[in-house]
């Protein structure tokens, strides 16, 4: 529609230009004729003829010029239209890319030593509450040398980096710090498209089932329908998993407090004697726990031995 309006405007301009050229040529011829009357009639006729010839030549030149200008203008207009169309297509493509939201899966692993494991643990719990996160796992293990606290935290993706900066502001040195970001946009789009296609196929089978009258055909269509439905549920489960992993980043945290430094060889000897003594004490406690069984067994053995001696 736009091209048609442009061509129509150019044709009107060309007609006006041609009309103006003819009018100017006519005025020029009349002036030449009036000047030739004072000289002679023959000369006047000659001048008039020359004026008419000049008119034809001028008209022809003006026409050619107008046609040339029309062609140039048309070419320029066509180029402008193409450029505008190309710009519009690029703009639409850019808009579509902006509308495609990137799906990023964020994960982090942190490990460090702390001087007060209880205080550090409470700071992390406060940060969890502050940033609307939650701890999916919280475990503490202690031995003779250190106490270790391990946590797995799910944090909203928009608060992922801020949360890490908050809990690590008092950390002087990390034993482990690993942050990874995985782009799953392509898989997300692929699964979404698969679900759409499977649902269209499912609707096709439903329509086919309504028109089918033969029992064997009905059973076959229902089997295909069940297969499609299973594929849809599997894809929807995968999509739900991706949405969960994208919306909430996962941070695995391990922090520990050292109780005492490891001892040398002689210290290990002393520790072994101590552990051996503790083992004897544990054995005595175990015997005391099963004293009823020992009493019953002793009584049975006493009567068995006594009966054998009588024989």
Compile the SSE list and pairings.
Layout: H1 2-36, H2 41-99, E1 104-113, H3 117-130, E2 134-142, E3 146-156, H4 160-167, E4 174-183, H5 185-211, H6 215-247, E5 248-258, H7 265-289, H8 291-310
Parallel strand pairs: 1-5
Antiparallel strand pairs: 1-4, 2-3, 3-5
Helix pairs in contact: 1-2, 5-6
Kindly describe this structure.
The protein folds into 2 domains: 98 residues; 161 residues, no CATH class. Helices cover 71% and strands 16% of the residues. With 311 residues, the protein is an alpha+beta fold. About 22% of the residues have low confidence. The protein has a 5-stranded mixed β-sheet with strand order 2-3-5-1-4. The chain contains 8 helices and 5 strands. Helix 5 packs antiparallel against helix 6.
Task: Summarize this structure as a short list of keywords or feature phrases.
311 residues, alpha+beta, 2 domains, 5-stranded mixed beta sheet
């Amino acid at each position: 529609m736009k091209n048609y309006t442009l061509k129509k405007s150019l044709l009107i301009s060309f007609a006006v230009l041609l009309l103006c050229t003819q009018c100017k040529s006519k005025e020029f011829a009349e002036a030449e004729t009036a000047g030739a009357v004072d000289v002679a009639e023959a000369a006047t006729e000659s001048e008039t003829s020359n004026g008419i010839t000049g008119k034809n030549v001028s008209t022809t030149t003006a026409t050619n010029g107008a046609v040339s200008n029309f062609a140039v203008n048309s070419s320029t207009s066509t180029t402008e239209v193409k450029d505008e169309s190309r710009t519009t297509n690029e703009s639409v493509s850019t808009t579509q890319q902006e509308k495609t939201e990137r799906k990023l899966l964020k994960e982090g692993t942190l490990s460090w030593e702390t001087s007060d494991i209880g205080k550090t643990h409470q700071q992390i719990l406060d940060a969890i509450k502050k940033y609307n996160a939650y701890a999916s796992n919280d475990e503490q293990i202690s031995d003779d040398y250190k106490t270790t606290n391990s946590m797995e935290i799910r944090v909203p993706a928009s608060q992922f980096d801020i949360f890490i900066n908050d809990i690590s502001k008092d950390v002087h040195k990390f034993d482990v710090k690993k942050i990874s970001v995985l782009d799953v946009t392509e898989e997300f789009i692929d699964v979404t498209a698969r679900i759409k296609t499977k649902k269209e196929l499912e609707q096709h089978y439903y329509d086919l089932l309504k028109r089918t009258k033969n029992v064997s055909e009905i059973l076959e269509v229902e089997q295909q329908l069940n297969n499609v439905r299973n594929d849809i549920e599997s894809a929807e489960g995968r999509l739900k998993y991706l949405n969960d992993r994208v919306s909430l980043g996962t941070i695995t945290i391990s922090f520990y407090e050292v109780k005492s430094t490891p001892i040398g060889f002689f210290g290990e000897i002393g520790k072994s004697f101590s552990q051996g003594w503790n083992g004897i004490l544990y054995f005595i406690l175990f015997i005391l726990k099963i004293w009823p069984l020992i009493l019953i067994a002793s009584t049975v053995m006493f009567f068995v031995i006594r009966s054998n001696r009588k024989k």
